[in-house]
Specification:
The protein has 48 residues and is mostly helical. It contains one helix and no strands.
Length: 48
């Protein structure tokens, strides 16, 4: 019983983990030199 549950859980986790690794693109989000985000953020408008 326990081994069946463990095999089902790991059977679902392994493909999800591998898909997550393939979908994770660090290069497009972070600058390799300074670590800042490469996404352009619009200026924040403040009311004074």
């Amino acid at each position: 019983m326990i081994s069946g549950v463990v095999s089902i859980v790991f059977g679902g986790l392994v493909p999800g983990f591998l898909l997550g690794l393939l979908a994770f693109r660090v290069k497009s989000r972070w600058c390799p030199r300074c670590g800042e985000s490469t996404l352009a953020m619009p200026p924040v408008e403040q009311d004074r």
